[in-house]
Amino acid sequence: MERDETDSGIQDETDTATTAADTPRSAPNRRRLLGLAAVSGLAIGANAGLAGGVALGADSNPPRFQPTGLRRFENKVVLITGATSGIGAAAARLFAAEGGRVAFCGRRVERGRAVEQEIRAAGGEATYFRADVLVEDDVREFVDAAVRTYGGLNVAFNNAGITIQKKLHEYRAEEFDRVVHTNLRGTFLAIKYEVPHLIRAGGGTIVVTSSSNAIATDANRGAYTASKRGLAGLVQSAALDYAADGIRVNTLIPGTTDTELVRRAAGMESIPDDAWQVFMKQWAKSNIPGLGRLATPQEIASFALTLASDEHPYLTGAQLVIDGGKTAHA
What we know:
- The chain has 330 residues and is of the alpha/beta class.
- The protein has a seven-stranded parallel beta sheet, with helices on both faces.
- Helix 3 links the parallel strand 1 and strand 2.
- The radius of gyration is 19 Å and the shape is globular.
């Protein structure tokens, strides 16, 4: 189960402007899931089973994330796609905490408004816009509205993505297209409409969320893997297209992250949160080489901020992996 995106029928990572909940979902590959649930003592609806699972998971301490306290994005305008939950929402909070004026989109209006209100209540500046990256007019209008609201554009974090998991021959053509059009074409559209504003600003940075599936994938992820690997090539080309304009473009490659997308792809969105946490910890120990746990959305989002900042002016066209050691394993 990775934010990646990978493993056991669990999917990767990213948040979405068009969410996996909005797409037809194939039956997840449940062999590992059910086997691990049995080993962990997770019997949904059975208190004794849950208690046993909690005991097994007690030695896995959650990571402690500490914000930097920096103000790297003071008065900069930051645009984020796919930010109503998960990595995108975490990034919206962190950019705002570092002084950014954040415009973000997603399809889920209630979630978007909640993230907006949370950021403002904490003293940050953010505005939610409903937009679907599958729809070109939505993308153009979102970018233009963000620029009108905050007076320009300096940073773009193109994060929206979905997955549908099944064997390649089982995809309906419209399912395959939906994944590729959301993840790859949606990013193309975002960059297309962001670049003119970045050029007018004298340059800026673009960060694109790919996936560790672009490097090492698994069965039932044909559409997702193709789209995420395609993003790496898109970013490399864009980095060369706009280097002379002072625009740096880089790819963020996260591993499996504890997001709604991962939980949904695992087919476990209806189980209690405590049971999910126990399952996740036990599954990760056996299925994520290296650190042996899922990333938190904050950990991935904080790396996106590093890539988007002015700290590394020679960094462009790169693919930066943050996967806890997953793809280092042969």
